[in-house]
Design goal:
Elements (H helix, E strand, L loop, with lengths): L5 E5 L3 H12 L3 E5 L8 H4 L6 H15 L4 E4 L12 H7 L3 E4 L19 E3 H8 L15 E5 L3 H13 L4 E5 L11 H8 L4 H10 L1 H6 L4 H8 L10 E5 L2 E8 L5 E14 L2 E14 L2 E4 L13 E2 L2 E2 L18 E2 L4 E2 L3 E3 L11 H20 L6 H17 L7 H17 L10 H14 L1
Parallel strand pairs: 1-2, 1-4, 2-3, 4-17, 5-12, 6-7, 6-12, 7-8
Antiparallel strand pairs: 9-10, 10-11, 13-14, 15-16
């Protein structure tokens, strides 16, 4: 009787799904456990709402991967401490391996006074909100008319797009530790909000920091030519930048709502060939109604793997292989040992680095390591694998979890597609888990 391996993959975003494909191609069976009802992760709930071509293309790819009969999808299943399933449950059931591709679901903060005020949010939560991911879809975000976004990467552009083009607020102020040349956003992405740029203010801002930029050898005339355009901001909405500023305090009004952001002004110094921001001790205030952190994410420590400084701890050993297995192995520093049979990939391994393509590449490299590990292990008979899958379902049933299968997802998506056609739009999503579960139940009952 032929034997196969049974692998649990936790998280059905790009890393989880592309990783699942590599495991299934190697002949293994995969139980794909997903916190959300629908698969896709950041490809579904992180890419900006109007990117139809990109989203539909990824959905088709994911659907094809999940259609493999060796893939057993379980949606609406959270894994971690005090969740429906724990890593200990999965280890006790005795799978061949466990792969964690749950993304970076922890929230990174700056640790400054006042950041618990009403009106301070994390970009990930905001992105999940406008992309209709429960429960963020139902959360109330008190935005006001003037918003400071901390950070100047592509996520800042997405948040600015939502605020200026969709919410139509009056003013967005991008607060950046360094100067214009140290931007992390792509120019092609920036075009969606460039029309709101306050060019007069931008020129003044660059002139304000001229001495600091000159001190590190930057050409001010070239910077002005690149970053200052002609014309007034469109529709009176203003996009402004405050460079060389690090947030030090959120100032709240007497109702506990954001009233201003205090920043420390920085200077630039050259360190190992790159520009580094250093505080000057001089402070200023920016009057805003809301502050949004677009500073990257960290992993969720509650998942149950060894955790330090926002990341899961991986094996410090540098093994002579490409890919290096150590990079994908969780490591317990107290016991000084690798957690055997458990692996991390994608943003769970390297939080907030790159987009879908990077997560895909990392997962595929990681699954080479997993497949190599499995090749030296004894597999299971079909009956043994069925018993292990039943054991997982038994735990979830005992906890009263409404598990969603890939057949259920197909039912849900067909109803959402019908609704989109009726509304003459390319996309429609139900915004609560209860709505989605009810639609699935009703369609199944109707046959």
């Amino acid at each position: 009787m032929s034997k196969q391996h049974l692998v649990a993959v936790i998280g059905a975003g790009p890393a989880g799904i592309y990783g699942t494909r590599k495991l299934a191609e190697a002949g293994h069976r995969v139980v794909l456990l997903n916190r959300d009802i629908k698969p896709g992760g950041l490809a579904e709930y992180g890419i900006f709402v109007d990117k139809e071509k990109m989203k539909t293309g990824l959905r088709k790819q994911f659907k094809k991967i999940l259609s493999d009969p060796k893939v057993f999808y379980l949606g609406h299943v959270s894994v971690g401490h005090d969740q429906a399933l724990t890593l200990a449950d999965l280890k006790q059931i005795g799978l061949s391996a466990i792969v964690v591709t749950a993304g970076a679901q922890g929230t990174k903060k700056l640790g400054i006074p006042g950041e618990e005020s009403v009106g301070v949010y994390h970009a990930k939560d905001v992105v999940y909100h406008y992309n209709s991911l429960p429960p963020f879809s139902q959360r109330n975000f008190e935005i006001g008319r003037r918003v400071a976004i901390i950070g100047m990467g592509n996520v800042m552009v997405d948040i600015g797009n939502w605020l200026l083009n969709h919410k139509k607020i009056d003013q967005v102020v991008v607060v950046a530790r360094r100067g214009p040349l140290e931007k992390a956003y792509d120019d092609s992405e920036f075009e969606v909000i460039e029309q709101y740029l306050d060019n007069l203010e931008m020129k003044k801002e660059i002139e304000r920091i001229r001495p600091q930029l000159t001190a590190v050898g930057q050409n001010i005339d070239q910077i002005i030519e690149k970053f200052v355009k002609q014309g007034e901001p469109a529709e009176g909405r203003r996009l402004q930048f405050r460079y060389l500023c690090s947030p030090t305090k959120v100032i709240a009004d007497d109702r506990g709502r954001v009233a201003a952001l205090e920043v420390e002004e920085n200077e630039l110094i050259l360190q190992d060939g790159r520009t580094v921001a250093k505080g000057t001790g001089k402070h200023a205030q920016i009057e805003v109604d809301c502050v949004i952190y677009a500073i990257g994410d960290q992993v969720d420590a509650s998942l149950g793997l060894p955790f330090s400084r926002g990341v899961f701890v991986t094996n410090p050993g540098k093994l002579l292989a490409d890919p290096n297995p150590a990079a994908y192995q969780p490591y317990d520093p107290e016991a000084a040992r690798v957690l055997e049979g458990i692996y991390v990939a994608g943003w769970s391994r390297n939080a907030s680095v790159g987009l879908v393509g990077v997560a895909k590449q990392d997962a595929e490299r990681g699954m080479k390591v997993v497949n190599e590990y499995l090749s030296a292990k004894e597999g299971f008979t079909p009956g043994e694998m069925e018993a292990k899958i039943e054991a997982i379902l038994g735990i979830l049933d005992k906890k009263g979890v409404s598990v969603v299968t890939k057949e259920d997802v197909e039912i849900l998506e067909s109803v959402e597609n019908e609704e989109a056609r009726n509304r003459k739009t390319w996309d429609f999503k139900f915004i609560t888990d209860d709505q989605m579960l009810q639609v699935i139940r009703e369609r199944k009952a109707a046959g």
